[in-house]
Amino acid sequence: xxxxxxxxxxxxxxxxxxxxxxxxxxxxxxxxxxxxxxxxxxxxxxxxxxxxxxxxxxxxxxxxxxxxxxxxxxxxxxxxxxxxxxxxxxxxxxxxxxxxxxxxxxxxxxxxxxxxxxxxxxxxxxxxxxxxxxxxxxxxxxxxxxxxxxxxxxxxxxxxxxxxxxxxxxxxxxxxxxxxxxxxxxxxxxxxxxxxxxxxxxxxxxxxxxxxxxxxxxxxxxxxxxxxxxxxxxxxxxxxxxxxxxxxxxxxxxx
Length: 255
Ligand code: ADP
Ligand code: MG
What we know:
GO molecular function: ATP binding
Number of domains: 1
Organism: Paenibacillus silagei
Radius of gyration: 19 Å
Helix content: 25-40%
Keywords: ATP-binding, Nucleotide-binding
Pfam families: ABC_tran
Domain ABC transporter: 3-235
Distance between the termini: 42 Å
Bound molecules: adenosine-5'-diphosphate, magnesium ion
Shape: globular
């Protein structure tokens, strides 16, 4: 599935938070959204996944008009890993992941053996098969994040949106989550705060500043010290990872 966002704008009262943002994710690309805190990344993503109604603009997942379509129809195609995943009611890990099957089921339809197998496979993929009976609220932030990813895997979406999915995670699990997501072989739009990981995993980047797209392109072209100074207000040098050859960013003193 391709994502097409056309001139999307979001306001809260008088405040224009997202302004005329257009972006595309095509051919199963892994596309990153980067930009400083408060520049509007989460607001943009929420308006794409239907939590916030945009003031103007259009969102299409291939032929599906996301803004007009029912939430259930969108949930069959689109998986979301949001930023905050607190629950007021407690569920077990397995129950949480099983909820990923909901968009595919009728109102009173019970889980089938096939659903149970999909849920087990998703738990295995994030190394949580030993935690299935634990209460979700008792888990650490990183474990919760992996449960949320497993739930989205169980949903078997054709496109995925992630909002800083590796916050609170050890580096091992940051890499694990990004590797799992990359291997899904579906289109991905992810807000990422770590620029070196963005360089490593993304085929293409959109840089946001003050609600607008300030730049876009392949990581090699985008992640220059000049752009990082301009957008993030920090000094850095870029370098090549001596083993992988990947682009790296070394931060110098902040101004
Ligand atoms: P980012 O994800 O890039 O850090 P956000 O999209 O969360 O940025 O926030 C962008 C701006 O919108 C911030 O100034 C934030 O305070 C404001 N904002 C976000 N949600 C709301 C809301 N519901 N009402 C008013 N302002 C909001
Ligand atoms: Mg955010």
